[in-house]
Design brief:
Order of helices and strands: HEEEEEEEEHHEEEEEEEEEEEEEEEEE
Distance between the termini: 74 Å
Number of helices: 3
Helix content: 25-40%
Largest sheet: 6 strands, antiparallel, barrel
Strand order of the largest sheet: 4-13-16-15-14-17
Shape: rod-shaped
Length: 384
């Protein structure tokens, strides 16, 4: 019994000794202080920022026209496709001209017919004039003889009648010749009108630009007023919708920054026109902003216009100092040599700075850039 008790006491002492050894080593290891991380910090500070008003809009061509035919006819050929660039006067659509060619031939034939009878009419006028001159000379002699009572009254009356008849014949010949001049002028006008109508069969570009729509194919019937093509003149602008409360803060010629997300481009532009009429439904008006010439511009692009309407003083930090994890935004701030996580709410960005709406105060030290092994509670040493 005594041996058993001694064995149990020895076993307890041995177990206690085995347990205390590692705890002593572990305590010694944990007692060694961790080396602080060397970091750089920036100070959250209030800066003077421009106050920006953002308006959205759509890119439109400065000048756009719908091409239609002036004359009804079947389309023979379409020379362009959507996306083609055209020059002023370039042939776009050709119509069937067989009916016009027939009308032009008839007009030319009528004009030639009138021209062919003009020499005959001129001869008739000349003959009538010669006959009139003859009878007038004869009448003069007869008048002298009648004064001497050498001829009878009958003979004198006959001479007078011949003068009147010759005069009438001359006037008729002249009238017919004048009618031919009028007919010739009419035939010329008809031929010219046919020529003009014939030119309508060739639809040409009114100016240089880009074909943005095509609604016609060969074989279609072109009707006056029905759209065939749509052409946009080179040159675009952003038509932004601005709240009516901003009407007094925006003026023509004002500089404005424009961003087009679709082509990932930003421009420095100016307000070219303000439409003062306010839309009753949206309570907004349109501001037109001229854009610089850029090949990637197209009608319909979404754009944002940033108008500077004053200044403000936000609390800011470098945008790279903020850490985003899902919907949470945070920074590492230095508090008595220890890195502390601060949840923040961020606002607008300007260049490499971002506005802090909440979570920091002016003068707070924010770690930037943050080392990869930095975590909450890490001891840090600020690099001077």
């Amino acid at each position: 019994m005594t041996k058993k008790i001694l064995f149990m006491v020895s076993l307890v002492i041995w177990l206690v000794g085995c347990g205390e050894g590692p705890r002593e080593d572990e305590s010694a290891s944990s007692a060694a202080p961790a080396r602080p991380l060397t970091v750089t910090v920036v100070t959250a500070a209030v800066q003077q920022w421009p106050s920006i008003y953002e308006a959205t809009g759509t890119v439109r061509a400065r000048s756009s026209t719908v091409i239609s035919a002036k004359w009804m006819g079947y389309v023979r050929e379409v020379k362009v496709q959507v996306g083609d660039r055209v020059r002023e006067g370039q042939l776009l659509v050709a119509l069937d001209t067989r009916d016009l060619d027939a009308s032009s031939g008839r007009a030319e034939a009528a004009r030639e017919e009138v021209r062919s009878v003009i020499p005959e009419a001129d001869s008739a006028v000349a003959g009538a004039r010669a006959n009139l001159d003859l009878v007038q000379v004869t009448f003069k002699r007869m008048n002298e003889l009648y004064g001497k009572r050498s001829i009878s009254d009958q003979e004198f009356d006959e001479a007078s009648a011949k003068v009147k008849a010759a005069q009438a014949a001359y006037e008729i010949a002249r009238a017919k010749r004048t009618q031919l001049d009028a007919k010739l002028a009419q035939a010329d006008q008809e031929a010219q009108a046919t020529k003009v109508t014939r030119s309508y069969a060739e639809v040409q570009a009114p100016f240089a630009g880009l074909v943005t729509a095509k609604s016609v194919d060969p074989g279609n019937l072109a009707v006056p007023g029905a759209p065939l093509l749509t052409i946009e003149r080179d040159g675009y602008r952003l038509e932004a919708s601005v709240e009516e409360s901003r009407l007094g803060t925006i003026r023509a010629g004002q500089p404005v920054a424009v961003t087009l997300d679709g082509i990932n481009r930003s421009f420095d532009a100016r307000v070219s026109e303000i439409v003062p009429a306010v839309d009753a439904a949206s309570r907004a008006y349109i501001v037109k902003i001229d854009l610089p010439s850029t090949p990637a511009l197209r009608s319909g692009l979404f754009g944002r216009a940033m108008f500077q309407i004053g200044s403000r003083s936000p609390l800011t930090i470098p945008a790279g100092a903020a850490i985003e994890r899902g919907q949470l935004q945070s920074v590492f701030a230095v508090d008595n040599g220890v890195a502390r996580t601060r949840l923040v709410t961020l606002g607008e960005k300007l260049k490499d700075q971002v506005e802090v709406l909440s979570g920091l105060n002016a003068g707070d030290k924010v770690i930037f850039p943050a080392p990869q092994d930095l975590s909450e509670g890490s001891r840090v040493e600020v690099r001077p």
